User: Fold this.
Amino acid sequence: MRGVLSAGLIGLVALSASAAPVFAQNSERYDIPAETRQTAQGLSQTALESDLALDIVTSLTTEVGPRLAGTPQEARAREWGVAKLRELGFENVRVEEFPLDLWTRGHSIYEEVAITAPFPQPLYAISLGGAAATPEAGLEAEVVFYANFDDFEQDAATNVRGKLVFINDRMVASRTGAGYGPANRKRRMGWVIAEDRGAAGVLIRSVGTDTNRFAHTGMVSFPDDRRPNVPILAVSAPDADLIERIAERGETMKIKLKTYAGWRGEVTSGNVIGEIVGREHPEEIVVIGGHLDSWDNGTGALDDGAGVAITMAAAKLIGDLPHHPRRTIRVVLFGAEEVGLVGARAYAIARMADGTVRDHVLGSESDFGAREIWQFSTKVNEAALPAMDAIGRELAVLGILRGDNDSGGGPDMIPLDYMGVPMASLAQNGEDYFDFHHTPNDTVDKIVPEEMAQNVAAWAMMTYLAAELDVDWRQPMEGEQAQPSQ
Amino acid sequence: MRGVLSAGLIGLVALSASAAPVFAQNSERYDIPAETRQTAQGLSQTALESDLALDIVTSLTTEVGPRLAGTPQEARAREWGVAKLRELGFENVRVEEFPLDLWTRGHSIYEEVAITAPFPQPLYAISLGGAAATPEAGLEAEVVFYANFDDFEQDAATNVRGKLVFINDRMVASRTGAGYGPANRKRRMGWVIAEDRGAAGVLIRSVGTDTNRFAHTGMVSFPDDRRPNVPILAVSAPDADLIERIAERGETMKIKLKTYAGWRGEVTSGNVIGEIVGREHPEEIVVIGGHLDSWDNGTGALDDGAGVAITMAAAKLIGDLPHHPRRTIRVVLFGAEEVGLVGARAYAIARMADGTVRDHVLGSESDFGAREIWQFSTKVNEAALPAMDAIGRELAVLGILRGDNDSGGGPDMIPLDYMGVPMASLAQNGEDYFDFHHTPNDTVDKIVPEEMAQNVAAWAMMTYLAAELDVDWRQPMEGEQAQPSQ
Assistant:
């Protein structure tokens, strides 16, 4: 209702202010000044011809590699981030530290898991983030097989006490990655139900869309800050198929595992920040970025070295312009995203503390790999929509469709989104993202240079225009009225 | 020269015996009797509609899984083979044991390898078969990078004493797998040169055509029965890229490894044999098969569960005919192929001992995965070529081209080929075989059921016709003259 009402109000205001009283839906057309358009198009062209983002992600994955939140490797990644931002000419480069409860695998990226009955053979499996270790001598137990999470949730009758619960949901691949949420329930919540029923541990088919013999790791959920006391592991898709085949034969199946995972106490993580300072309103901030941490089994090239590299490269190209845009572009390389958006929360809390939340005029994160961008979505006040549509028209030459005005902006934007900061998102083709996500296979060779360059072009145009156009993207404060596009 | 001469002789003989004196090159057309053709075509049709081969390879990889030569797992595979052959109605099912020097990884399928300088991060790597272990505390040494095997072989000047040699040859993918031999030189012989130069160990880019983060294992060579005293490992392609990138920066690179590989003394391996006994000439043998052993890191689905399954299924379908073919079809599931064709040699030696080498009228192995067959090659006496061409015409309906008359018959046929046994081969499309070969990713889900069924159809037709047609495929004995096709 509020949306409809304010749209009505905006329409009225817009009418009186409009030079060309042509209405498209609730709002008139906004035209980007010719010189600004030219600059944006020049940025796009430069980006398409540049290897900068590929160089950045190659540097990160070569010189740092895996960088689990809270580990010395993540600290090395922060040092890398500071040095790289300075090297690229960013201003106000700094680290904002925050405390983090450290979880690690404890031993190595190789975990020993095997079927011991009826057909002994090794499995490729990996502990999920937050899981507990097995007893020191390992754990061998009978397997209770569930075809999917719903079956498991609803089956309170079967006695799983002292047994290993296996949940076999399959994930559907798609451009949007929409299958991730449903398939991820078993990863996030399976252990809670299993532990409540006295299970000795939980195994799941990896949340992923590939058929490679890699297990996909990822964090479990901690409802009411509860932490697991049992081992929780993902097994590779071919191994899940094997377990399924054995289960179908109805014979007693046993699995043995030996894991060392656990919580290691409080350590330091941090967000790395750099800015292209605005020429007119340096206090107004367009915040973009990716997350710097990665899982320990891959090298975090797609997740999320790509997002780090794309947004750094886009901002650097904007910084190279003869004139900075009106507002400040702030690149944030978030720490500790994988383990629960810890860096994103710390960033938002720090902005509440320094009173600058409202200065964030737009936020957007790249955290979905490096395939081509196909859609541009926003969440801005309705009066500003025509200007965002105009940005959308510029992005169209890169093959990007205009999406809706309900964008979340990306995982690390969730806290800012919640606080009312306007959002934008440039959605990448995610049809094979979950082939590589959270596996050893997340390496830089999986990035297609031309597709990554298209990403940088889109980010450079969108970020530049969002920071340059004299339009307020924000929702009006209580008591204010939205300002129309100018 | 001998070929040309005998072709001339055969031409003369063929002329006098021929009912239809039409010459194609040196020989007349051979027509398969109509009823026999019908039977062959019926077999093909049955095979195309059958899941038998897929069921067999699924059974092997599920109930046994990896089965390294000489291990208890390979012994379980022999038990499986005996039971499966009996279940399928084969006769004379038996195991022929032979002694084997056992090599194992010693610890687990996960080996600890990491770059320690300048950019510490773990690598996905695996010991090659025959390699020695590191010292108990592990081995850390500087890396000397070579772009390819030739560079390494020719560079006697560089001091590699106490260092780790890395060789980075890339393999070319193709339908025929022709790139394997050249790329494999570094795997087979790299250690010999490195050890002679005092190197502490050898690392190679995996011999394979994929970009997955799996290392490809495989046996090294043992010239003059010499065995390695140094660790020898393959690293995954993305990790080899990483090593290459670091090497290009010119900084000192160090790698640390800890491996447990080594020789464990003499054990027992064996070949499993089953027969479809011939109705007229039971003593004459068409020998087909695959190898039963596999590498320890995968499940040996493509290499060579597929070959075992395809040839067993083809022979079983022939055995189900109302009348067995004239000659015996012998299916041999060879042991210990991967570690040096030990089962194949044992089989050939046993046949020399029992005087039945000459009774082998044709040999052929399936050991190149389960993609569609595209070519039929032979090595038979020239008088028998028209009959093989006729078999080729039957195979053409499956999309199979007629190849030359210089087939080797497959790895486990090498000793029999050497002894003059006629050979045939049904070449599979190998363009992605080396994506999976000798990796954890060699699992049954990689097999396309329809392609495997085409394999069985081709093998059933070829094997049936080779055993049924009244044509002698063998080279004439000294003093004999080749018999023309009838």
Remarks:
- Chain B is about 35% helix and 25% strand.
- Chain B has two domains: 2-101+266-468, 106-260.
- The interface with chain A takes residues 58, 61-66, 73, 108-112, 118-122, 124, 211-214, 237-238, 241-242, 245-246, 298-299, 439-441, 443-446 of chain B (CB under 8 Å).
